[in-house]
Amino acid sequence: MGRQAKATWIGEHGGAAVTLHLESSGLQISGERRARVPRTAWSQVEVADGVVSFVADGDTYRFRLGAAASVWANALLTTPPSLAEKLGVAHGETVAVRGELPLAELDSALADAPRVAPWEAAVVVVVVRTEAELGALPVWFRECGISAHVWIVHGKGRHSRAPGDTAVREVLRAAGWRDTKVSAIGEDWSATRYSPLKSV
After folding, report:
1. CB 94 within 8 Å of CB 65
2. Disulfide check for 86: which of 22, 153, 183, 192 has CB 3.0–4.6 Å away?
3. CA–CA dist 55, 116 (Å, integer)
4. Are residues 57 and 152 in the same domain?
5. pLDDT in tens, 116-138
6. For the chain, how many structural domains are there in total?
7. pTM for the full model?
8. How does 154-181 read in b/e, with b if 16+ C-beta sit within 10 Å?
9. Is the model's pLDDT at 200 over the cut of 60?
């Protein structure tokens, strides 16, 4: 999940109503005008009179955001957390992994975390590629005695063949788990953190 806001893109030919969506990879602009600006491209971020501006690839971008301008300027200037930090394994926490990791970025994020059994792990990461794998999770959780946070790596978008967030939510909520955080990890993959209710 990123930061999102309605804004007016101020250009040479007047204003355009747009939606800004800030993710760790960059800024996506949709609406009357469209663009995608990688996070590594922008510099000279400034804010004045409710307008945020920055320079990217030689072009100046200006967005009227009103009272939210200062918050957006800070967000543009802030380095996003690493994937390891998002998953909660950046400081030597133990991890258990079920399933084959689908992305090199995810493999790298978990590379320095000590691997242990699921019932001993501070963080559990589970990859679901099929409906059958998803349906088997509640039983596996009970058999392993898992009480830690569990990150479910699932499909994202219409091109993914893996179960998506809705399917995962239905199965895990029915089993007494609640989604508490989301982290995009790739074009076709996302991860949702689930925590057990106290009664589980």
Report:
1. no
2. 183
3. 46
4. no
5. 999 999 999 999 999 999 999 99
6. 2
7. 0.69
8. bbbeeebebbebebbbebbeebebeeee
9. no
Are 44 and 72 in a shared domain? yes
Instruction: Write the burial class of residue 45 (CB in 10 Å: 0-12 exposed, 13-18 middle, 19+ buried).
Output: middle
Classified as helix, coil or strand, 20 is: strand
User: 1: pLDDT confidence band, cut at 50, 70 and 90?
Assistant: very low
Asked whether the beta carbons of 154 and 169 are under 8 A apart, the reply is no
Domain residues for 52?
A: 3-77
| 142 and 192 housed in the same domain | yes
Q: In what order do the strands lie in the sheet with 59-64?
A: 35-38, 26-31, 14-23, 3-11, 59-64, 51-56, 42-48
Cβ neighbour number for residue 51 with a 10 Å cutoff? 17
SS3 per-residue string spanning 32-93:
CCCEEEECCCEEEEEEECCEEEEEECCEEEEEECHHHHHHHHHHHHCCCCCHHHHHCCCCCC
Q: CA 151, CA 5: separation in Å to the nearest integer? A: 27
Confidence label for 197 from pLDDT (cuts 50, 70 and 90): confident
pLDDT digits (tens, 9 = 90+) for 13-28: 789 999 999 987 789 9
